[in-house]
Amino acid sequence: MKELLGILDGNTFMLSDSRGDVDPSPDYPAGLFAWDTRFLSKWVLTIDGERLHALSTDDLQYFESRFFLVPGEPTHYVDAKTSVIRHRSLGGAFEERLTVLNHRDEPVVLTLRMEIDSDFADVFDAREARSLPGRAAKFVEPGRLRLCHQRDRHVSETIVTSTEPAEFDTDGLTFRIELDAHANWSTTIRAIGTIQGAGGRDVRENLHGYEQVRPEKQRELREWLGRAPKLTCDSETLEDAYRRSLIDLAALQYTGLTSQVRLLATGLPWYMTVFGRHSLITGFQTLPFMPEIARNALWVLALLQGGRIDDFRDEEPGKILHEIRYGEPGGFEDTPYTTYYGTADATPLFVVLLDEYERWTGDADTVRLMEYEARSALRWLDTYGNLMDDGYVWYECRSPGGLENQGWKDSWNAISYSDGRLPGKPRASCELQGYAYDAKMRAARLARRFWNDPAYADQLEREAADLRTRFNRDFWMPDRGYYALALDAEGGQVDALASNMGHLLWSGIVEESRAGQVADHLLSRPLFSGWGVRTLADDQAWYNPIGYHTGAIWPWDNSIIALGLRRYGFAEQAARLAVTMVEASRYFGGRMPEAFAGYDRRLTKYPVQYPRACSPHCSSAGTPLMLLRTLLGLRPHHDHLTIDPAIPEALGRIELIGIPGRWGRTDAFGRGRVSLDPE
Amino acid sequence: MDPTTEFFEGLNHRPPDPLLGRIRGTVRFELESDTDVDTWLLVLSAGSVSATQTDRAADCTVRTDRDYFNRIAAGEANPFAALLRNRVTVQGKLTLYSYLNHLVPGPPGAHEPRDWVRQRGQR
Amino acid sequence: MADPTAEFFARVEQRGPDLLPTKARGTLRFDLRRDGEVDHWFVAINRGNVLVSHELRDADCVVATDKALFDRCALGEAQVVAAYNRNDVTVQGNLPLLLMFRRAFPSPPGTRDPRERIRERFAGRGRERERERQR
Amino acid sequence: MKPLVSILDGNTFVVSDNRGDIDPSPTFPTGLFSFDTRFLSKWELTVDGKRLSVLSVDDLQYFESQFFLVPGEPTHYVDAKLSVIRHRTIGGSFQEELTVLNHRDEAVELTVRLNVESDFADLFEIKDVKEKVGGTTVLVEADRLRLCYQRETFRREAIVTSTAPAQFDQGGVSFALRIGPHQQWQTRLRVETLVEGAGGRDIRLSIQRHHSRSPEELRQDLDAWLDRAPKLSSDSEPLTETYERSLIDLAALRYTPLVSGPPLPAAGLPWFMTMFGRDSLITCLQSLPFTPELAGPTLRYLALAQGVSLDDFREREPGKILHEVRYGESTAFEEQPHSPYYGSADSTPLFVILLDEYERWSGDRELVQTLEHEARAALHWIDRYADLMGNGYVWFERRNLRNGLENQCWKDSWDAISYSDGRLPAFPRATCELQGYAYDAKIRGARLARLCWQDLVYAEQLEREAADLKERFNRDFWVSDGEYYALALDTEGGQVDALSSNMGHLLWSGIVDDDRAAKVAEHLLGPRLFSGWGVRTLAEGEGRYNPIGYHVGTVWPFDNSLIAWGLRRYGFRHEAGQIAEAMIDAGRYFDGRLPEAFAGYDRALTKYPVQYPTACSPQAWSTGTPMLLIRTLLGLDPHGEHLVVDPALPEGMGRMELLDIPGRWGLIDAFGRGRAEHSRTPPHLTE
Question: Which one of A53, A408, D183, D500 is most buried, by most CB atoms within 10 A?
């Protein structure tokens, strides 16, 4: 598995090998990507025809990195006489400053060459290596190389220029350099990707701050970090994870092409675009720290809410979007992803976040402005979501290119019986019912306080109460002592033991008398690995420690579970989960990946990586933040923030200074008093 | 007289060597020729060294063929290299064997460093 | 034969409030190219109420495309955001307004309520089960 | 550079790629090595003929590691149905426990195979592959695979066995498996290495420490080692991290040579797991206050192997301390001179210096008396054999023209000793630090003569010689216009005038005239020599300066540790602190493990210290560096029966406590405090 290094800026990213080169590779999307399109598929530097090798790499900032290179294989038997510093940055355009240093005591003549190509592939084509329809062309023009791809009216271009004079040809550019003894030479190579819109202009030109320069980004980042609450605590690991998260959240933001709102890309490299679910979850996780993330998520998702029935996009009125894609295949409807609605959880989560957002910020206007969208979302729960007319939320895929499973565990084998059979469709997974319950309870509050519609409020509360009763009757498996993962079309219980039921605690749909059993299952093997709660218990037929949704451990999943545990008063269990997550983060340099392997902790010293996991990933970045909320027991109560710390001794003292909210800014302190027996 | 005999005889008339001051022990040499094996016994005690052809057990037994030991005795072959090469086999205390380095001469014609520098002209 | 685009705008004018969010307000202009000429459709939205005219007036959001393509959008055959992404529709001004207006476009022809298909497949078994359980 | 993973026990070690595979490649040598011979040149795991890919590597201990693997290229969107855990340990022999986990819900049938080969290459043949003289045979037996090499009487053998039933063949070993749903299969593979000696038995059996040791034994041994060392507690995370790292690495670097008992510090991992006179002596000097147990055996061993007669091929002279010992084929057949090789001019004076420093700390007079003759022989060598030009300086020139070293000082690459304008001086050469060492050796020798050998006459003679040497040195080496010491003298007595780090060692030796020390310090911390990460080997602006040149521009941690110590000796507390801080900062970018050297680029240019491509990590004297820096910061110095503590910590280093420092006083503690508070901003935010 080759080591890859990435820099990113919103949904634009450059992924290369450790020496900074891009060679097309089938198993992983190396190259310069923006808006789901690959603008550079080849970017290979040579000196006198020889490839270079890395002495070291500095990741200066998320949008900036630097490579120290020497020609040939580095050995400590022969000193390199030339070294190259490759300093690259992203800010709209991709810039690479090349500095060649001559370490000889005499002049030298070198030929420096950059091999360049672009396949304009969509990020998914990069996976499957299909060839795109349309025409490709390369133009060598004075002072620049222009790579184009055209399909009907859709034109993407990559334009490469250099500050130093270069010889351009269709496959790249070449410099003949004469260097004096101990002298240096530099040039800056610039690659700009454009997608043509109205009047042949780059469609992204109507975005504010689309072309950004580094100093600006530096300042932005400083301001961003400045706005966040200050964390000081005894655990350096937790501090690192917190800082890393704030930086990654800044890194993943971009301005939507159509919505023009600051959005959150989901995960590098596969999901560098908005996903309804993850924008909402991350918005929720980050509310006590960066409420604007939640506000922006609510805005864009309201704007893109489903308006009609469209089987190709799994769209229905009131439904909240699953994902947006800007790539060519979507545009030509080879895939449904330009605006795809194949998810059943985003809709209730939208309402949940709207209420939580108001509780923290006190921003009543937004709640009033979104009454229409919120009501349509709630209506969806009872109509299109209620496929079987039995008052549960169901899903079934109608789109040819759509997703088999439309809960957060959306891989084809994620929803199974204990013995490995896969249920027929439609399916109603348990956490969806929890979200629906929570959405109705919270909406009732909103209806009463902001929409002055008490009748509607009462109705919602009745429905919620009724749903809760039925749910505890139909999903609970007395013989097993836990909730079924889902109901099948026949109303039978899909009985696999999975992490989903942790979300039920978070939603509050669990009957108090049963919460204890649920907590026990979550915090003990076979579900608990010692590093966290597995997506699927290790005694289930589909269990696979490196199965995406069938055994791997997802940090954000665990953050939701931890908050749920606290909601039901299991402070110690929540603390244990928080500690294992923090410990795991250490081995990822403070940056939680999308998921990691579910091997038993007794077997591994480190949490084993999930192959090619997205990293950074917005909801994983949100995880340390939500864990802090859980540990400190932060809860808005009218115009105050109540604090009820339950911190394990292992983490020591935690101070969170300047928590924003309807109260202005306030501080929270807590000391490690919960003692846990070591894993 | 062959180099081996010369070497062992020589040891008996050697002034006490302070570097061997703290060494005590016996080394048995078994030197094979096609016809027979002749044995030498080396006795190291407080700097003095004696070599006799007594045939008895010792703290350390060194075995090789006589021709090869001739080369070692003449300084042409290196005892440590010979051991690594398994051309000489040693049983018992390896440390005692390593003192052989103290007793055998260096290669014939080895240079005094200063002479080496002076004689640069001739090379 | 009838003009899908004209029928579409007529429908939006009547049913605006059911199709669009109550808070919706703003003006859009659709410039539809057809053999050399350009039809202008000016749409003024206020609290969900819609007024349509052919005035050539400045609008918050100006959308330009082929009449033929817009007809297909008006029939639900094509989708305006996808068309925008492949550069068949170009937009100047306030894009979000177009996204909001997207709600006014109909479903693809022949689209059925997903629940009907389920009802056929399961003959309303879900509801029956529910009734039994109630007893 | 491809990440390599190595584990070792003494000089038996395995280097593999990060999948655990061994593949012969000249650029990235991998294999199972023991006593300088490669016993496995191929050790390649396949499942149904497919290579595997790594998910993660756990380097559990220096003698133990674990690989998590999946077949084929892992992808994000297809779950692997199988994973393989490869858990390997080394303790005399090499053991690998293979566990294959079936994640499917049904049974699988598959073939697990290890391709096994050995080229029995000598360490020196790996970089430039050459035809083997001897012959290799592979013997397939019912329950084991034997790879044998023979050249005349020289025999090496690797024996592969497995606990689970296996089919052995010429090319390796296969397992035809059926694994039930969610079941796992396991076997333990064992590779024994045989270095044949008397009666076909392994020659290494004579070493008590060699016998195969279980990971448990190795673990206990490591715990005991860490337990004996002083405990450091400090506000500076990087400092404690690098100190703990050093202790463990130093433990890993211990090895037992053929003829001696207790373990000694080898020079570097993995390619230099053998005795290097210079490296071992300096490592012992650095670590004396922390792990004194290393110094005694090192001195004894070097004394045992001290030169007695002249030998051109081995550059040996009476009284000279060895440079390097090797055990491989090329040494055995006298193609390489390492049996042992004596081509270094500094190990001999350093031997006397360590002997004295060791006595100051341990009070172990007995050893000093035992080694009196060796010490005298060493001092004699300085005047008799090192003084090639007969003018009272230490010189070197190689006599082994085939494969001897040109520069026989620590900067031993061919271009290390040059004039400012880049020209190279003729031979012989007398580099400045050698004169410093000789001076120090004489002064310390005098102390020992007085204290332990009751030979006052000799003591006074040595002191006279030292004083005279110091006077001449300050006359002949001082570059008056540049106000620094020349790197060396050439045969004409001319000054080799490059500005270099060597000067720093002079402060340590005390040969610098007091009124010149300030100038020297100024140069060392000036912009041309000090990169911000440390003192460069060669100053920027010199003809041969190259920020990534092995001895002509890179920064060497051990070099800096001696310089810092020297600065302290002359009272430059602040400057010493500056260097210590730079080193400790650099350490954090290498997980506390300072490399052999890193690039000399200006710190302003690089956010991280740029690693110099090195074959070896850890390197003994880089490992000793943090220890000597701690000694320097706390100002530890034995006086009579007491330990003097005179801390001089840089601002921002906060509090430092070193508990249970061993020595002639028993155990004692030292405390120090820097003024400003230490900040914990993570590196990626310090812009």
Answer: D500
Q: Domain count of chain C?
A: 1
Helix or strand run (H / E) with residue D14: strand D12-17
| Encoded amino acid at D40, one letter | L
Task: Kindly tell me if the per-residue pLDDT of D678 is higher than 50.
Answer: no
Question: Which band of pLDDT confidence, cut at 50, 70 and 90, is reported for residue A370?
Answer: very high
pTM of the full structure: 0.87
Residue-wise pLDDT for A88-113, tens only, equals 998 878 999 999 999 888 999 999 99
Distance from CA of A196 to the nearest CA of C (A): 7
What stretches of A362-399 show up as alpha helix (H) in DSSP?
Answer: 364-369, 371-382
Residue A390 · residue A338 · CB < 8 Å: no
Pairing of strands D636-639, D642-645: antiparallel
Q: Average pLDDT of A456-460?
A: 98
Tell me which DSSP letter residue A551 carries: T
Q: Do D399 and B113 touch (CB under 8 A)?
A: yes
Pick from A213, A318, A305, A192: which is nearest to A259 by CA? A305
- d(CA D522, CA D101) in angstroms, rounded, equals 63
Q: What is the mean pLDDT of chain A?
A: 91
**Inter-chain CB proximity C122 and A489 less than 8 Å:** yes
Residue C66 has pLDDT above 80, yes or no: yes
Q: How far apart are CA D315 and CA D322, in angstroms?
A: 9
Q: Is the pLDDT of residue D577 over 90?
A: yes
- The whole-number average pLDDT for the span C107-119 is 91
pLDDT, residue A456, reads: 98
Q: Which of C77-81, D118-122, D279-283, D593-597 has the highest mean pLDDT?
A: D279-283
List the domains of chain D with CATH numbers: 4-210 (2.70.98.40), 229-685 (1.50.10.10)
Backbone angles phi, psi at A653, to 5 degrees: -85, 140
Element (H, E) at C129: helix C125-134
Residue labelled with tokens 């496929």: A387
Percentage, residues of chain C above pLDDT 70: 98
Asked whether residue C127 is assigned to any structural domain, the reply reads no
Q: Which two tokens stand for residue A264?
A: 């959150």
Say if domain A4-206 classifies as CATH 1.10.260.40: no
The mean pLDDT of chain D is: 91
Does C118 fall in a domain?
no
Tell me the pLDDT tens digit for each residue of D335-392.
999 999 999 999 999 999 999 999 999 999 999 999 999 999 999 999 999 999 999 9
What is the C-alpha to C-alpha distance for residues B83 and A61, in angstroms, rounded to an integer? 59
- For residue A165, which amino acid is it? P
D contact chains, 3+ CB pairs < 8 A = A, B
Give me the residues of A, 151-210, that contact D with CB < 8 A: 182
* ipTM > 0.95 (yes/no): no
Residues of the domain holding C64: 4-110
Under an 8 A CB cutoff, do C86 and A154 touch?
yes
Domains of chain B are: 3-122 (3.30.1050.10)
pLDDT at residue D257, as a whole number? 81
pLDDT-derived band of residue D683, with 50, 70 and 90 as boundaries? Answer: very low
For B86, the closest of D196, D259, D306 (CB atoms) is D196
Question: Any idea which of A4-18, A410-424, D231-245 has the lowest mean pLDDT?
Answer: A4-18
Is residue A70 within 8 angstroms of chain D, CB to CB? yes
DSSP annotation of C51: E
- Helix D502-509, helix D432-451: angle, nearest 10: 20
**Cα–Cα separations (whole angstroms), residue C68 to A91, C4, C38, C56, D36:** 39, 10, 12, 20, 80
DSSP per-residue codes, A163-187: SS--EEETTEEEEEEEE-TT-EEEE
Q: Do C99 and A308 touch (CB under 8 A)?
A: no
Q: Which CATH class is domain A228-674?
A: mainly alpha
How many CB pairs (< 8 A) connect A and C?
A: 136
Contacts of B2 (CB under 8 A, 6+ apart): B66, B70
